[in-house]
Every structure is written in structure tokens, then in C-alpha cells.
Automatic annotation (TrEMBL):
UniProt source species: Starkeya nomas
Any GO CC annotation of this UniProt entry: cytosol
Keywords for the protein's UniProt record, in alphabetical order: DNA-binding, Transcription, Transcription regulation
InterPro entries: HTH-type_LysR_regulators, LysR_HTH_N, LysR_subst-bd, WH-like_DNA-bd_sf, WH_DNA-bd_sf
SUPFAM superfamilies listed in its UniProt record: Periplasmic binding protein-like II, Winged helix' DNA-binding domain
Gene: cysL_1
Protein name, per record: HTH-type transcriptional regulator CysL
Amino acid sequence: MRFDLGDLRLFLAVVDAGSITRGAAEAGLSLPAASERLRDMEAAGDVVLLERGRRGVRPTEAGEALAHHARTILRQIAQMRGELGAYARGLRATVRLLANTAAVTEFLPERLGLWMATHPQVDIELKERESLDIARSVTAGFAEIGILSDAVDAGSLHLCPFAIDRLVAVVPRGHSLAAKDRLQFAELLGEPFIGLAEGALQDNLDARAANIGGRLKIRVKMRTFEGICRMAGDGTGIGVIPATAARRGQRSSPITAIPLADRWATRRLSVCIRSEPELTPSARSLFEHLAQPAGRKRR
């Protein structure tokens, strides 16, 4: 049987996502093209690689074996490119990095920019995921580095502190909740809510509401934290965003930021890897940079 690198990347994307639709999108393919490619892979080997069901797909025993070898092959290729990159002008390396919403929007732009400016031959494949998915993906080898919260079990992953993320409710000034020093998330379920159009944070908030038997009364979804602050300031409703974003929003919108008292709302973010010896030279350098305390520059 013959599988090219595109086949292997598609297969791992589907396994990682647990869905052919989402895996196809990650691989940059249409659903029909991805489905046909997966069927061709199974036909070439005369083996079933995926169990298909209502809730998505999962690898068969043969699929698990293929995923294991695919991860090894792609990791070795990445290591080869990283090592040759030190000698071959123009050869680029790519580091796969997964992070939750707070890390992507609030902390990484500055921390990542400093490193990338001094590593012009390295590209970053950055994807936003929920912390649980990040732990699973890094453990499985789908990504070299992850940034996740301490709300999930990281298992055997190697962790280093990255940042502290505190979630706050943003409400219009003069709102009945604005006088409170702290709020329980449950107190927000009856209020008109301004959500985030997409992202791991909104998925997390929806799940938290469901866990306590309720749901958020979404009036509108915005694409940015700035948009949520502006809508809240105009009296549209309330939102939940990182404290760092709320501080920026208070400069231009008449809002009050109230810390959430729930334990899960104060999250210690960590940068994680499977093991340092497995990292490519580029990934190792980036991990060491991200694992340093904020504000300290590498020499």
C-alpha cells in the first residue's frame, strides 16, 4: 500500500477531530474530496481504518497503528527540516502549536512575536482548541506544543507555567450587578448574554452553563472581545471575557468588570509538550521561550 504525506496528514486530522468534516477542513480539503481519499486509503490496504458513526469517527485497531506510524513519519520529517534548516538557506520549518482562547488572544501575540522576529525561517501553525482537546492532541503527537489551563488533567505531559487567566463578567455601568465585588457564573444565566462568535472560550461557557442545568440567553455573538465590551457598554447585555481584555475595553466603553468567583474562572495556563527530546530544534527553542516568565528575554 502507498500513502503519501497528504494522506497521512488528512488521516491524522480526521482522527484528531473525531470527524471527517472537521478533519477535511483542517487539511484544506472539501468533504467529498477527503471522503474519497480516505476510502482510497482503505481500499489500497484492503483494511478498515475508521469506524463511522452518528457522533463522528474513531480509528479501528488498524487505524490506530496507521496513526502511530503517521505521527512518527511526520515528526521525523519535521525534525529533518528543522535540522537541515540550520544549514540550508530558504528551507522553512513549521511548529504546530495549540492554545486556548485566552492564550491565543491575550498572551501569545506578544510572546510569540518576540520569538518569531528572531526566527524568520520558522512558521507557526497555530490553532485554537479547548484545553481538554489540547491535552489529548499533544499526548497523541498531533501537535508539538500546547498551552492549556489547569482545569484539565494533563496526564504525563511535561508542563511549565505560562500565565494566569482570570475571567470576568462585563456589564453596563449602572447595571444591577455592577455594584457586586464578585459574581457566581450561575447568576448570569438569567441575563441577556453577548457571546463570542467562535472559539474555545464560548464552547467552555456553554458547557459550564449546561453542567448547572441552564443555558446562556444569547442575544448576539461578536467576533472579538472589544466587540463584546462595546455591546455591553451600549446596554445590549453582559459578557464573560478575560480580565486583560476587559481592562482594555474599559478605556473606550462604559462597562464594569466583575470577577467570577467560580474556581474554574481563574485558570493557570501552562505550556505543555510530550517530552523535550522528541521536539524538533525549532519547537524546542519555542518551548524554552514560552516557558520563561513573561517579560524575560532570552539571551
